[in-house]
Amino acid sequence: MSLSRIQSLRLAAVLEDCSDQLDILGHALTVQISRERSSAQAQEEARMNKLKRDSKYVSQLVSKLHLELEEKQSFSCLLQVVEEEERKKMAEHMKREAKRELDCRQQNLQRQKVELEQKTETLKELNKELRHKLNEQPAKIEKKKKLEEKNNQLQLQKTQKETNKAEKLLEDQLELRKKQLKEEMRVHEESTKFLQNRHEELQQLLQHWQERTKQMLQEKEQQLNNVRCKRTVILDKLMEMRRKYREMEQVVVEDREEQEKLRQKQAEVRAATKLQAWWRGCMVRRGLGSYKKAEEGKKGKKKKEGKKKKK
Question: Collapsing DSSP states into helix, strand and coil, what is residue 41?
Answer without folding.
Answer: coil
